[in-house]
Amino acid sequence: MQEVTTSSPFRRRPPPRLRTKTGCFKCRERRKKCDESRPICSACSRNGFACIWPSTKSPSSQPNHKIPDTRADPSPDPSSPTPSSLECIWDDWGVNTLQAPKARTLFDYFRSALQPLMFRSHVHPIYLTSDWFVHGALQHSSLMHALLAVSAVHLSCLYPAYRLTGIEYYSQAVSATREQLEKKLLKGTEDWLIMVLVLAYLVEIWFFDDIPSIKKHLEAASHLLHSRQLSFKKQDLIPDPSFERLIAESILCNTSAISMLMHESCDVSSDVVSKHLELFPGEKSMESPLLGVSPELYFLVVEVSRLCFQESVEMEEAKGLESRFFEWREGSMGDIDSEENELDTNFMLGVRLYVLSIELLLARLLGNREQSEILDLVAEAAGVIGEMGSYIECALNMDYYTWPLLIIGAAGKGQESCETVVRERMENIKKKSGCGGVKLVSSLLERVWDFDAIEPEEDGLGILLRIGREEIAQL
């Protein structure tokens, strides 16, 4: 009897070999090699998957929602906790939002196109390689929605269909953050929370031109900055100095940019911001992500603007600001003009516009300049604007130019050459950015130039300060 064999003539293919034993769960499930980059591996980041890690006893392999922040100094004391490692309240995963194709498109756009534009062109490489906003967004849905809103707002300048998308994501970010604050689920020192406020400013100034809301966001960011200072000291935390400086500079830069558009005093504490910058100094100009020069220049912008809107000017205070300005100019402009200066020449032209604008406002406050001197300052400023050509520094923060251009344009009322060069410059920035703040200033200047003075000696700055933003905008 012939023996019957049960073996198949075809060899069964063995099951696929698991290519990773220590990678994330998603790579294990897909049987793909994981590069084990935390908190989001490259494969999950590229494909928009939720990157979940196994829980172990090792401090470096905590579950995904408890991963400590690695942005701190590379050689901190291991026994000292980092701010993010102490955060115990987390919202829904931001990475889950990326399951939607449109969200992934906006996320990739932020990483590839917008993030490099958030800083000055000659900034320290750490600001270009430390993906604070990206990493935070992947862990917190509120920050992710704010990040996606910024991308949609920027794209809406060229593709209007993104406008509604931007509004939707921004509304989700604001409502979710407000809900957590109202329920008192937050400590107020979370990294992602202050990053939401930074992005909220960009959305507001680009999209809605809502100065009162912008003012509230800046004030809230200032209060959070103070809370962070107290937390660092109380809990002996080791924060990332580059990140902390970025946040402080962002608050100061944004406050100064709209200081002539806020007729009510903004409750942004100069002392708090100044202290933060002192705690996390940038010894070289390239270590300054946004300001590029000594913060004192931008503090002067805020203080001089505030004084201009007071009904009665305190001459002693104005003289004090003038002394501070001269001291800063003597101590800083020499270094700026030196051949060893590492800053971009075009960027320094923007700084000169700030310097000339402060001089124009101080001259008006103190009344200590002849009219011929005022005209010379305006002519010099117009020449600087002409030298800049089509150059734009820090493209995502186009409102950097709004303050000096508003001052110079108003002071140059009636001088055709100045009005022309300022108008051309504003149009150039509007075409490249679509920034709401730039559009607002451009509109204000046109109205100032067309508005008749009540008295023969009233100049453009007088008209701007007398009428005010709200009344001009309604004409």
Automatic annotation (TrEMBL):
Where's it found, cell-wise? Nucleus
Which residues lie within the region annotated Disordered?
A: 1-22, 56-84
SUPFAM superfamilies assigned: Zn2/Cys6 DNA-binding domain
PROSITE patterns in UniProt:
ZN2_CY6_FUNGAL_1 (PS00463), ZN2_CY6_FUNGAL_2 (PS50048)
Gene3D superfamilies in the record, alphabetically? Zn(2)-C6 fungal-type DNA-binding domain (4.10.240.10)
State the name under which the record lists this protein: Zn(2)-C6 fungal-type domain-containing protein
Please give the GO cellular component terms listed in this UniProt entry.
Answer: nucleus
Q: What is its main location?
A: nucleus
Q: Per UniProt, which keywords does this protein have? A: Nucleus
Q: Compositional bias (Basic residues) at which positions?
A: 10-20
Record keywords: Nucleus included?
yes
GO MF: DNA-binding transcription factor activity, RNA polymerase II-specific; zinc ion binding
Domain named Zn(2)-C6 fungal-type is located at 23-53
